[in-house]
Amino acid sequence: MTDKTPPGVDPYRFILDNIDSVPQLEALMLLWNSRPVGWTLEELASRLYVPVQDIGNLLNDLSRRNLIARTEGAAPKYSYHPRSEEQNALMEQVDVVYRRDLVRVSTMIHSKASPAVREFSRAFLFKKERE
Question: CA 9: distance to chain centroid?
Answer without folding.
Answer: 16
